[in-house]
User: What shape does this take?
Amino acid sequence: MLLALVAALLPLLAATALHAPAAAAGEPARDAARAGAVPAAALTEVTNFGTNPSNLRMYLYVPESVTPKPAVVVAVHWCTGSGPDMYNGTEYDTLADRYGFIVLYPSVTRSSKCFDVSSPQALRRGGGSDPVGIKSMIDWTTRTYNADTGRIFATGISSGAMMTNVLLGDYPDVFAAGAAFSGVPFGCFATTDGSEWNSACSGGSVTRTPKEWGDLARGAYPGYTGARPRMQIWHGTQDDVLRYPNFGEQIKQWTDVRGVSQTPTTTDTPQSGWTRTRYGGTGDRAPVEAVSLQGVGHNLYAQGMASRVLTFFGLDSSGPAPQPQPGACRVTASVDAWSTGLTASVTLTNTGTTAVDGWKLGFTLPAGQTVTGGWGAAYAPSSGSVTATNAAYNGTIAPGASVSIGYQATHSGNSAAPAAFTLNGTACAAG
Assistant: This one.
């Protein structure tokens, strides 16, 4: 009788296990862990996430306070970089802590550490290269966290910017918007000989009509007639890797894709040396937004720019961009230079009303400068967009107090001091 009873109960127990209720939609990350989600507030690698023809790696950051039906930002790294490098080199994780979205960091494993934006497979939907693996990562994330499929976004730097263009072309039904820093149009890097590099495109000599560019992007998903993503484009006028003409070609492409005029609806200067044009609309979420940075090279990304990306995406809860607060900080910088080297002295003053407890000072070195040493802070990387992180002894700055730091650098002719600084992502007054 006992055996018969057990035999009768086993099917019921099995049915209960198979049909246990799923986690409620929109539960926080700590509850979603029951469904195999990653630990909260830590960059975590996810394996076996789905179809992955080019052997990409997937890293995920989920904030402790993830929102119900969260948005997902796909943050795509540069050549020679990795998902963890993108995590460490940008502030999307700290912004995710503030606003509750999830950040997905794809990572290349091929030797070049560049994303495939050139092969025929990459330039069509479901073609069997990197975009397919990234789409699998998105699908895994949306399933696991019940993410909002209407709020999937892509942003990238250099190779990642080119991949942002490719993702929006291949999967216009997946992405709501993208933001590309130092990239090229969809299809510009196309090759047929197996090469990952297209010198004509990188040199800025590939030009097409807006419709030709638009047709290339539309051709990645033939027959699709739905909504197309919005695009934000950033480029430096002195980019010597992916030349500045690619900025205008991207504008041509995405205004045509979005069906809006090539003539800007607004033009302004949100920061010294920046020219921002908007197409098809005047607000923070225009169909196309383009930011040109005068005198800036390829490594243009700097702390504070991610906040402007979130404004364009619509992911900052206040709506408008978290604007720099007047008087929060002030930086003075001076340089003592000689033939091929220099020393820079930097003074950071807290002009706010509350203490700064832990600081990161962001700035962009002029082209040709490389940090070789420093004091008062840790400096990384050594060129381009640099972040100086406080030492153990000077991490707290009281209201009205200052801290002095400095660095040594080599230069190839331009020995100027950085022109702009951000403190923990907020712009500082200069001088």
